[in-house]
Amino acid sequence: MLLVAVLGSGLSIVYTTHQSRFAFNELQELKDQSNQLETEWGQLLIEQSTFGVEGRIDQKAAEQLQMQVPELSKIVMVEYDRE
Predict the structure, then answer these.
(1) Domain boundaries in the chain?
(2) In the chain, what is the greatest distance between 2 CA atoms, to the nearest angstrom?
(3) How confident is the model at residue 21 (pLDDT cuts 50, 70, 90)?
(4) Which site in 21, 33, 49, 80 is 20 to 30 Å from 15, CA atoms measured?
């Protein structure tokens, strides 16, 4: 009877240790994913603020300097050859 209890206890310890390691590995993967998502979120916030600034620049250029986007027919492409 004591032998069965010891074997059962040993097996439960092995199983619990395995589950603990599995859960810890999963936790580490989730933390890595969270860090990647936070980095991406920060980059998206920077990108969003950049787009907002460009809109303000366009508005200021039009209002204060009376600048406007040229018509496509008036745009000239210039190529530079470094020979």
Answers:
(1) 2-66
(2) 96
(3) very high
(4) 33
